[in-house]
Amino acid sequence: MRFLEQSDIRRMTLECTRVGGVNLSQGVCDTPVPPEVRRAAQAAIDEGVNTYTRYDGLAELRTALAAKLERYNGLEYDPEQSIVVTSGATGAFYGACLGLFDPGDEAILFAPYYGYHVDTLRALSVEPRFVTLDPPSWKFTREALDALVGARTRAIVVNTPANPSGKVFSRDELEVIADLAVERDLFVITDEIYEHFLYDGHVHTSPAALPGMAERTITISGLSKTFSITGWRIGFSASTPRLARMLGTINDLVYVCAPAPLQLGVARGLEVLGPVFYEALLAEYTLKRDRICGALDRAGLTPYTPEGAYYVLADTSKLPGENSKQRAMHLLETTGVAAVPGEAFYPEGKGKTLARFCFAKTDVALDEACRRLERLG
Question: 156: which DSSP letter?
Fold first, then answer.
């Protein structure tokens, strides 16, 4: 486990606290929780929903998730057999990896990647193989994927919309991945936690909805970001009944269950929050995205405007330093704005001129961060 170190995301959060700065590093999402969600969780506590749940979650939440998956993602899952409520989407990802891989297996990921995905694989002695995507298009080719598939390759990991690039994988791109997965008999593990954060007309496509993919895809998501409840740790996975039984058993072994009253809060939100809520969420975050990108541009830190999620990668090559960590620390020391060094999202040697900024912040915090950044201009 020597490779495991404190993530740059958390390290920069601590450094930000040290200098009393504005934290745009960690995706804590400190915007308000919808009242319907908050009150339902509070009521559940008051009503005594405070004990263990079934290993795969409360029926109310599994039913609400199945309805949401059918309505929004075009996926049909039996809430009694195919959905497992987990301790966050990271818990769902860990369970999927623990269930699918043996030590020495390989998995393909797209870089820039989410560090927890890579560290989870390495913690289980699974070798990550990387397709590197370059800004501003973040495109890949079938040939690049083909070149990484070997005798021990078991799965492709897809994060769409992606953290940290904000890339939304198009249906055409996902069909390339699906064709390869079918041809080479691979699983696809998805992380779709940012599926409601889509800008400029981009559309979210779940890989499991593509022909031939339902039986080989483990769909992972949650409402942590959508409902601003990252600390509640409520995620889920959806898959075939056979896979779900395995993943449910692992969930029971590692986590027992997700927090019972908070499950009912999420279920209530899924039931009562309709299109008006999601449209307002998108409008709010579009404005936040445009504010931070504008400030970065005026600061001379060219942003790669995201298609989805709530992060933006920016070019920090104008700042002093030999790598992204030194540049991120210089930015923090001079402006009091914390960002994550780009190298946290790439294999060794990549991402040295990039930093990730999170814009899931209150307007007061985001406006202050933008004012500080613009002093660089």
Answer: E
Question: Distance between CA atoms of 312 and 291, rounded to whole angstroms?
Answer: 11
Confirm if 88 and 224 have CB atoms less than 8 A apart. Answer: yes
Contact in structure between 309 and 194 (CB atoms under 8 Å): yes
Q: Are 208 and 176 in contact (CB under 8 A)?
A: no
- Tokens matching residue 362: 């209150």
Model confidence pLDDT, tens digit, residues 22-77: 899 876 777 889 999 999 999 999 999 999 999 999 999 999 999 999 999 999 99
And the tokens for 148?
């990484």
Q: Are 357 and 27 in contact (CB under 8 A)?
A: no
List residues bridging with 1 in a β-sheet.
Answer: none
Tell me how far the alpha carbon of residue 197 is from its chain's centroid. 11
- Residue pair 145/124 in contact (Cβ under 8 Å)? The answer is no
The position carrying tokens 């990484």 is: 148
Which domains, from first to last, does the chain contain? 8-33+276-374 (3.90.1150.10), 36-272 (3.40.640.10)
> Taking Cα atoms as reference points, which of 90, 160, 134, 158 lies closest to residue 342?
134
Look up tokens 């949401």; give the residue. Answer: 68
